[in-house]
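Support request, please re-run this one:
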Amino acid sequence: MGLGKEDLMFCELAERLTLHPPKVDFKNTIEPIKQAGISDREILDAVLVISYFNFVNRLVLGLGVEPSPDEIRGYNY
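Re-run finished. Output below.
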């Protein structure tokens, strides 16, 4: 079973915002999400979460932080 339409749109938003932030614009990125019936609040929440994880990942990578075995226990990479 694959992702639903809304989840797929959020994944595409995350990919674009993460890999190509200058390509995120209202007409080509946000408007299609709104037309799918997703509320402004849901879009805002998604962008906030995506941006937060991008920020934290870059912070950790920039500082060369290495997680301890306890911190990554239970995660499958």
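Residues 26 and 32 are 9 Å apart (CA to CA). Helices lie at 5-19, 26-35, 40-63, 69-72.
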